């Protein structure tokens, strides 16, 4: 039922991706409702109740038409095909039953991974995260101050986190599926609760920390999201995902220098093996905001190399990030961007 409600909540959303479960649960419940109404209508044929049910059935099918088409289009996208394929019988059935492409494709992030950004909701009271691991790890999140420009530039352009190889994935444990299912169906409280339970078992794995932080962000709880990412950064073998989380959270909190530092460290972790495009995307808007249009374009070219299609921030977020960058007017940030582009981008 949660999958059906998730599809209805995206009533006319034709962008993005829908996994098989989202489409087929929606379709199954649709068929059940139509069948039940049709059966009762047949039994009550010739009566006022039968006529009323006939009208009700027609209204239901009209009401469900748009979300049905929308979830079908998103299902096509999940298999990396245009939504227009939904118009072709048999061919579309093959795509509807096919597993979606693993990882990002030109239509968006993998819905099974659950790392795609959901629209920010109004701040609500989220469950507190109580982490008592007693492993001696101390959150090592101490960004440099922009008040000391030379020191800020030096630290941003120096790798301060060691990225270890991580063989585990979101498929490595059955418990991960529950967290991702809760996140993908917008049950963020459940995602936080389930994810937090995993942390003592997987304290050195970045993804559970990432999921908890992301779910808190969706509830508008940026401070708690920041805490989870910071705690994970102190313990996880792979640092880049959590540094990217911190960079994203910091700029949303209005802390542009801290965000640029975090995103710079992401690029150092990647070196010549970038894993994701988000850090490059955010830095492109910072570069644009401080007037470095050539470097902004180079960051965007890197985004396009890493992800098929055109991946950009929503207009409101992009405008805010550019505005923060323009207001900063910090030459140290400009020098950091120039240094990063020289080291990691092909201009």
Structure description:
With 347 residues, this protein is mainly α. The chain has two domains: 2-96; 149-344, Serine Threonine Protein Phosphatase 5, Tetratricopeptide repeat. The chain is built from 15 helices and no strands. The protein has helices at residues 2-9, 20-43, 48-78, 91-96, 149-156, 174-184, 188-198, 206-218, 222-235, 240-252, 256-270, 278-289, 293-306, 315-328, 331-344. The radius of gyration is 23 Å and the shape is elongated.
Can you identify the CATH class of the largest domain?
A: Mainly Alpha
Q: What's the number of extended β-strand segments?
A: 0
At CATH level 2, the architecture of the largest domain is: Alpha Horseshoe
Q: Which series of helices and strands comes N to C?
A: HHHHHHHHHHHHHHH
Distance between the termini: 50 Å
Q: Determine the number of helices (DSSP H or I, runs of at least 4 residues).
A: 15
- What's the alpha carbon Rg, rounded to whole Å? 23 Å
Report helical residue fraction.
55-70%
Mean pLDDT: 84
Overall number of domains: 2
Q: Largest beta sheet, briefly?
A: none
Task: Tell me the strand percentage band.
Answer: under 5%
- Annotated CATH topology of the largest domain: Serine Threonine Protein Phosphatase 5, Tetratricopeptide repeat
- According to CATH, the homologous superfamily of the largest domain is Tetratricopeptide repeat domain
Helix and strand composition category: mainly alpha
* Parts with pLDDT < 50 across at least 5 consecutive residues: 114-127
- Sum up the overall morphology in one term: elongated
């Amino acid at each position: 039922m949660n999958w059906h409600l998730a599809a209805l909540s995206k009533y006319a959303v034709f962008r993005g991706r829908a996994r098989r479960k989202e489409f087929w649960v929606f379709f199954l419940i649709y068929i059940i409702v139509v069948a039940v109404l049709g059966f009762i209508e047949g039994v009550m044929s010739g009566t006022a109740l039968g006529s009323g049910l006939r009208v009700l059935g027609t209204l239901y099918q009209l009401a469900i038409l748009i979300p049905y088409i929308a979830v079908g289009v998103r299902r096509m996208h999940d298999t990396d095909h245009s939504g227009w394929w939904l118009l072709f019988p048999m061919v579309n059935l093959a795509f509807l039953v096919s597993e979606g492409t693993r990882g990002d494709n030109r239509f968006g992030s993998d819905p099974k991974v659950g790392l795609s950004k959901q629209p920010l909701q109004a701040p609500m009271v989220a469950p507190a995260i109580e982490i008592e691991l007693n492993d001696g790890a101390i959150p090592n999140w101490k960004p440099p101050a922009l008040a000391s420009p030379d020191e800020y530039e030096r630290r941003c352009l120096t790798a301060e986190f060691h990225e270890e190889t991580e063989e585990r994935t979101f498929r490595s444990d059955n418990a991960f599926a529950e967290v991702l299912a809760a996140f993908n169906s917008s049950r963020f409280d459940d995602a936080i609760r389930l994810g937090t339970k995993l942390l003592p078992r997987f304290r050195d794995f970045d993804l559970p920390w990432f999921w908890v932080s992301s779910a808190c962000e969706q509830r508008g709880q940026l401070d708690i999201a920041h805490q989870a990412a910071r705690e994970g950064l102190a313990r996880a073998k792979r640092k880049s995902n959590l540094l990217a989380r911190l960079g994203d959270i910091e700029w949303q909190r209005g802390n542009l220098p801290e965000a640029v530092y975090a995103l710079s460290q992401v690029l150092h972790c990647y070196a010549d093996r970038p894993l994701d495009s988000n850090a490059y995307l955010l830095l492109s808007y910072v570069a644009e905001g401080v007037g470095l249009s050539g470097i902004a374009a180079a960051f965007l070219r890197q985004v396009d190399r890493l992800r098929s299609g055109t991946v950009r921030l929503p207009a409101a977020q992009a405008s805010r990030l550019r505005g923060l960058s323009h207001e900063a007017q910090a030459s140290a940030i400009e020098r950091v961007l120039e240094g990063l582009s020289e080291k990691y981008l092909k201009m």
